[in-house]
Design goal:
about 120 residues, alpha/beta, 2,3-Dihydroxybiphenyl 1,2-Dioxygenase, domain 1, 4-stranded mixed β-sheet, 2 helices, about 20% helix, about 40% strand, Glyas_Fos-R_dOase_dom, VOC_core, VOC domain-containing protein, Glyas_Bleomycin-R_OHBP_Dase
Length: about 120
């Protein structure tokens, strides 16, 4: 249903380091790169970061990235923190979203919220 998601970021290079690490852990790669934009996906670009050159407002929402299992959630969370992100909720069960949901939350370098989720219910 969604064609793509785009985050406007204040520093494209800094954000690219963060998303390269997170997406690599999830088996996703860069599919497009230009001076002002980078796009990630598996078969086609689905997640874009675009240079805005000014800080976006944190907390306007979040993007949920599907992971193949708990180990992938853990790996992506660790990769994101190591690449300059911050924890906004460590990996763990999220029964409030379904009995098999396992997720973690990161804040990217601009403070935008990224959910990593595994489980049939999330």
């Amino acid at each position: 249903m969604i064609a793509h998601i785009g985050f406007e970021v204040s520093d494209l290079e800094r954000s690219a380091r963060f998303y390269d690490a997170v997406f690599f852990a999830l088996g996703v790669r860069r599919l497009h790169e230009a001076p002002a934009a980078i796009a990630y996906g598996v078969m086609e670009p689905a997640f874009w970061i675009v240079n805005r050159a000014r800080p976006p407002a944190p907390g306007y929402g979040h993007v949920a990235l599907r992971a193949s299992g708990r180990a992938a959630v853990d790996a992506a969370f660790g990769a994101g923190v190591a690449a300059g992100g911050r924890s906004d909720g460590p990996p763990g069960p999220r029964p409030q979203y379904g009995p098999r949901t396992y997720a973690a939350y990161l804040l990217d370098p601009d403070g935008l919220r990224v959910e990593l989720v595994a489980g049939a219910d999330g």
